Amino acid sequence: MATSYEIALAQMTSVNGDISGNLAKMEAIANECKQKFPDVRLLLFPELCITGYILSETLKDVAQAWDGFIFQRMSRLAQKLQLYIAYGYVEKDDEVNLYNSLILIHPSGQCVGNYRKIHLTPLEKAWFTPGSKPILVDTDLGRIGLMICWDLAFPELARYLAVHGAELLLVPCAWESPFHEPFQKFAMARAIDNTVYVAACNQVGRSFPFYFFGLSSIYGPDGNEIAAANMDDQETIIRAMIDENWRQELKQTFYTMMNERRTDVYKGVEWT
Amino acid sequence: MATSYEIALAQMTSVNGDISGNLAKMEAIANECKQKFPDVRLLLFPELCITGYILSETLKDVAQAWDGFIFQRMSRLAQKLQLYIAYGYVEKDDEVNLYNSLILIHPSGQCVGNYRKIHLTPLEKAWFTPGSKPILVDTDLGRIGLMICWDLAFPELARYLAVHGAELLLVPCAWESPFHEPFQKFAMARAIDNTVYVAACNQVGRSFPFYFFGLSSIYGPDGNEIAAANMDDQETIIRAMIDENWRQELKQTFYTMMNERRTDVYKGVEWT
Q1: Interface test with B, best of A129, A154, A258, A264 (most B CBs within 10 A)
Q2: Roughly how many angstroms between the first and final C-alpha of chain A, as a whole number?
Q3: ipTM of the assembly?
Q4: Whole-number pLDDT of residue A271
Q5: Complete DSSP assignment for A88-135
Q6: Residue B85's pLDDT is what?
Q7: Is the pLDDT of residue A109 over 70?
Q8: Which UniProt keywords apply (chains A, B) (predicted)?
Q9: Helix (H) or strand (E) holding B75
Q10: How far is B23 from chain A (nearest CA, A)?
Q11: Which domains does chain A possess?
């Protein structure tokens, strides 16, 4: 297992409904990333980057099964570039339910994880079916937990993923202005609470009625920001090293919480 | 019920083992607080402020039942000043178990809450028996949750208190250098995660082998710091307004998490 590896986040603008345009842009970004930063092992795109952040009837037209043509195309890209690639998309199941989903593709081209957003925002609830299953993926980089955007605001999901061994949380986002401060605070909290890396890749630019502020960020397991993009309307690639040895060192010194959780107490109290 | 009221935190240095000296200092601080800031309704002192932060055999000598002479004296002070007073002390039960405890006294002089620290640090485990019961107190100021220091590092306890209606968390601390950054991050996280006020009152000054850095802080329900003390070795009183109307407004606009928790999911997953 890799104890140290580089990841990249592609902060990008998606055009609503323009799947082929967005896919072409993602391919161009991935190619650029491979060329400029050949050591990157995993590339994360934002929430719903394939379709744009749409909350309308159009969703039904842009939804696909996880293994539809979008996956086929991204799978070929992952193989060609020998990269882990993760992206957000509108998923449709056999019963035509729609999900706000995140897929993780192995450099072999295989889908190794597909997560359906558990914590939908109030506006999203009108369109998406909520997921109900936390997803952990074992890779040759380590154990990776999958989350999406507003999931960051809930301590429970990240805690569950970390208790079950997640070392890095991938969190594609479409987080809108003026809420950049809570975005940063929630992402930081999930990192330090669980002594895990948090990679939050946000959309950037206007998508009426929203404006996505970018500020894609990677937090270390001590809650410190180790890489962050701008807020000035620009697409960009940010990168950071994930260092599992350092994370383990933190967990054995000051950040000993996982060994000190009072599960006897939590089991005994009513949460709801 | 008060929808808006002022609280104060007494960042102080305690002398290890000098109960009468520490008590006299606390009385002086409380009197000063009442004189300078007559609108303050609740005054919080640090963790183990009565005895100093001791981890040695001395603990057995300085421990008391919750209603011992320390309580009697602080109870009279609360009545005289017509203040809620909260302070950390070493508690001894009938079986001579020792607890790292926090007591909350009503302006009538009655004890309205006594909390035994649930999350002991690795060093504390050798001396104290861990508590196992979250404590919520209904007051005419609102519902108050009690926590102590390292409890801040665990999302579960604050979540439990908030789910059960806590509006303000009182958190006396003896948090040592060089860990002021995680202190701030954890306190902030507990506030924004749960849309509650967090009042963290730290000791300041040397207590071999520790140095307590002060930096006592009050965070608003949006995770922003609304008052903070210095880190320059000084005793001080900081204050902030607790505004329940504003907190409710936040909970009904962006910070809607308490209504969106997926308790169906959390119930179904194994936490341990």
Answers
A1: A154
A2: 39
A3: 0.95
A4: 64
A5: EEEEE-TT--EEEEEEEE-TTS-EEEEEE-SS--TTGGGT-PPP---E
A6: 98
A7: yes
A8: Hydrolase
A9: helix B69-81
A10: 32
A11: 4-268 (3.60.110.10)
